[in-house]
Amino acid sequence: TGTQENIDKLTKAVGFAYQKAGADFTHPGGLILLSPERKIVRYLYGIEFLPFEFKMGIMEATQGKVSPTSAKLLRYCFSYDPIGRTYVFNIARVVASVMILSVLFFIIFLVFVTRRKIGNK
Predict the structure, then answer these.
(1) If residue 31 lies in a helix (H) or strand (E), which one and from where to where?
(2) How far is CA 20 from CA 24, 25, 26, 27, in A?
(3) For residues 18 and 65, what is the distance between their CA atoms, to the nearest angstrom?
(4) Residue 26 dihedral angles phi and psi, to the nearest 5°
(5) How many other β-carbons are positioned within 10 Å of the β-carbon of residue 3?
(6) Rounded to an integer, what distance in angstroms lies between the CA atom of residue 58 and that of residue 109?
(7) Which helix (H) or strand (E) holds 17?
(8) DSSP class per residue in 60-117
(9) pLDDT tens-digit profile of 13-64?
(10) Is residue 45 within 8 Å of 87, Cβ to Cβ?
(11) Strands 78-81 and 86-89, how do they pair?
(12) CA distance 84 to 112
């Protein structure tokens, strides 16, 4: 427990979100593992953790290693559903990302083709 100001600072600093729901609060369960330098090393979501994942998270935290990019990608593709208390595939986020990347690659392709045609003249 602490003051609301300190709670807000801490939750914002570690990226932890919660919402007031009547007299209670709705939030995902999990652990946020920090290195001795106070750097976030890994998020473990849920209320049950695989022993291996927990042990690796503690080892990485003591060594100051940040979780791999693949774990960050998985967190991006899945969203926590507080009502169902589980993670669900966020198809809207994934489709939007694929569309944006496709448009960017198409623009880059057009720029290179246009430059090549101008260079051949």
Answers:
(1) strand 30-34
(2) 6, 4, 6, 9
(3) 27
(4) -105, 130
(5) 8
(6) 45
(7) none
(8) HHHHTPPPPHHHHHHHHHEEEETTTTEEEE-HHHHHHHHHHHHHHHHHHHHHHHHHHH
(9) 888 888 888 889 888 888 888 889 888 888 888 887 777 778 878 888 888 8
(10) yes
(11) antiparallel
(12) 48
Q: How many Cα neighbours within 13 Å face the side chain of 44?
A: 18
Alpha-carbon span 108 to 50, nearest angstrom: 43
Say which amino acid occupies 3.
T
Q: What is the pLDDT of residue 53?
A: 75
Residue 108 has a pLDDT of: 97
5 contacts: CB under 8 Å, gap ≥ 6 = none
How far, in Å, are 11, 27, 31, 63, 118 from residue 48 at the CA level? 21, 15, 10, 24, 60
- Amino acid 34 reads L
